[in-house]
Amino acid sequence: MTASVTTFPLLSFASRPAAEAALADALEAAVREAHALGRRARMALSGGSSPEPAYRAFAAKDLNWSQVDIALVDDRWVDLDHPGSNQAMIERAFAPAKGVTIFGMKLPTESPKQAEAELDLVYRVLRPFDAIVLGMGPDAHTASWFPASPDLAACLDPTSSATVLAIDASLAPVAAPYSERMTMTLPVVSEAQQILILLFGAEKKQILQQALDAPVTHAPIKAAIEATGARCVALWAD
């Protein structure tokens, strides 16, 4: 069944701070649920400027952070001191969360392809995640699943055993100037307990609505929505 705006949970908030607070609260609830079950909580977070205030609010929560693992959904293949590093942003946001463990994707290899095997072992141990935060670009990509990438089919293969893949984003204009990336795959996203998509602005809302009726090859975010169903919720504010 094709998803539609009537069946896909799209929650609207009066302001961006309200949406950010809701995301922080949802992540807190996921952590508390995992801890109540007597196990570590495992989150996977996307980068970008939109979710950073929500991450800061989440990091300020009174939680047992020594029992929380945070991994990246994807990252650009740049060093930590580069302004484009998603890992650097997440580490800044979670500086107050004493004891949290953050797993980065950028390894000291020349290319992301050379790091696939090592990172695969890391993500294989971490999965399944209690919650994953996704964003969406103007081309309806999420994670580093770009419509123009030659690696898209491998990322979206539901039967793949790979947890992470190196990405050639050189044909995706929205990815410039970061043509080399690392991303988790659809099977990892599809098994998470909860998917949270944070979106801001009328244009992004329209792109998401149009994506629900488009092929996944043109709108990769639809793959995450279809694979997770009611476990996937979008939080939107203008």
Report on the architecture of this protein.
With 238 residues, this protein is an alpha/beta fold. It has one domain (26-237): Rossmann fold. The protein contains eight helices and ten strands. The strands form two sheets. The chain has a seven-stranded parallel sheet, sandwiched between helices. Helix 1 (16-36) packs across helix 2. The two termini are 29 Å apart. Residues 1-6 have low confidence and may be disordered.
List keywords for this structure.
single chain, 238 residues, alpha/beta, Rossmann fold, seven-stranded parallel β-sheet, 8 helices, 32% helix, globular, disordered N terminus
Outline type: globular
Order of helices and strands: EHEHEEHEHEHEEHEHHE
Cα distance spanning the termini: 29 Å
What is the level 1 CATH name?
Answer: Alpha Beta
| Number of continuous helical runs | 8
What are the segments in which pLDDT stays under 50 over at least 5 consecutive residues? 1-6
Averaged pLDDT: 95
CA radius of gyration is 16 Å
Total domain count:
1
Give the proportion of residues in helices: 25-40%
CATH architecture: 3-Layer(aba) Sandwich
Largest sheet: 7 strands, parallel
Strand order of the largest sheet: 1-10-9-6-2-3-5
* Structural class estimated from helices and strands: alpha/beta
How many E strands?
A: 10
Give me the CATH fold name.
Answer: Rossmann fold
Q: What share of residues are in beta strands?
A: 15-25%
